[in-house]
Amino acid sequence: xxxxxxxxxxxxxxxxxxxxxxxxxxxxxxxxxxxxxxxxxxxxxxxxxxxxxxxxxxxxxxxxxxxxxxxxxxxxxxxxxxxxxxxxxxxxxxxxxxxxxxxxxxx
Length: 107
What we know:
With 107 residues, the chain is of the alpha+beta class.
């Protein structure tokens, strides 16, 4: 999994990029290696926002979280993404297994 990290209204430090890649790298086991995740960090007054968008077959997986700290926002985004990935994978599995069993009922 590759990461496209950009910052709006702030400058990104190498340590921030490494932390984001390490945390979101845990999700790479769910995606092919050529998948590109777009990560956008922005700040407005005291609010720190992280937005992550990952294209998947049949749509997008997207999460956006805001808090006072980038680390807290990153942890929240990671939880939301894991939940969405689980739901997406379950939906795909149900679709493939359900179609097979339904076809055998009509035969």
